[in-house]
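Suppose you are handed a protein chain with no further information: no name, no annotation, nothing but its sequence. What can you learn? This example shows the usual starting point.
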Amino acid sequence: MMIVIIARMQVDPLYLNDFRENINFLIKASQEEKGNISYSLYQDVNQANLFIMIEKWMGEEAIEAHKRTSHLTQFIDYTHNALLEPLHVEKFYAIGDF
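A reasonable first move is to predict its three-dimensional structure. Written in structure tokens, the prediction is:
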């Protein structure tokens, strides 16, 4: 069953340019992982430092493998300084084929 992860990130404005570089590396590496369906970043229309990452995975096994990758663990370490609040992550099961 497909699992969707939504991660909310409010970036310290001083880190915005650096954040974009770091997250682009994370996105490219994650999209190449086995079991990844999509890995996309969205920026809030009204608040330039608010981002949502929407990830789609083939299942829990793929997510567990993703959690162990160096690109994710390094990015999570980076967020401790770059975000104004802790990374907020939610996980959902996809319902239907749409």
